[in-house]
Amino acid sequence: MEIGVQQAVLNLSDTTFADEIKQGGVVLVDFWAEWCGPCKALTPIIEELAQEFAGRAKVAKVNVADGPEVAQQYGIRSIPYVLVFKDGEKVDELNLTLSKENLTNLIEHHLK
């Protein structure tokens, strides 16, 4: 099961970000870094959300080292930071209250 969970989370970079977001639907994107303790703590929640929303919404991660241009484009100044896109457009963001409940509610809201 662990392998399936890891495969469900998309790992995006500067070169893959735009194409994946433009495919439409709801996409939750977690901006993170290897050295960030809170980011590592959020990883299991992101993986759970990817499984729970499989087929309804995409869940992706951008390591800011692999996506510095994307992070700059969206004004990411602290991590972890979550953006939500719907049909290619940024529709929401969250950075302080990154609990599973809050992230689930965020995705559900934009699926309506």
**Spans with pLDDT under 50 lasting ≥5 residues?**
1-7
SSE series: HEHEHEHEEH
Number of H/I helices: 5
For this structure, the CATH topology is Glutaredoxin
Structural class: alpha/beta
Q: What is the overall pLDDT average? A: 91
The CATH first-level class comes to Alpha Beta
Helix content: 40-55%
Radius of gyration based on Cα positions: 13 Å
How far is it from the N-terminal to the C-terminal residue, by CA? 29 Å
Shape assignment: globular
Major sheet attributes: 5 strands, mixed
Q: What is the name of the CATH superfamily?
A: Glutaredoxin
For the largest sheet, list the strands in their spatial order: 1-3-2-4-5
Please tally the β strands and state the result: 5
What does this structure look like?
By secondary structure, the chain is an alpha/beta fold. It has a single domain (2-105), classed as Glutaredoxin (3-Layer(aba) Sandwich). The protein has 5 helices and 5 strands. The chain has helices spanning 2-8, 17-22, 37-52, 68-73, 100-111; strands at residues 9-12, 26-32, 57-63, 81-86, 89-94. Strands 1-3-2-4-5 form a 5-stranded mixed beta sheet. Helix 1 crosses helix 3 (37-52). The N and C termini lie far apart (29 Å). The model is unreliable at 1-7 (pLDDT under 50).
Summarize, please.
The chain has helices spanning 2-8, 17-22, 37-52, 68-73, 100-111, and strands at residues 9-12, 26-32, 57-63, 81-86, 89-94. The chain is α/β, with parallel strands linked by helices.
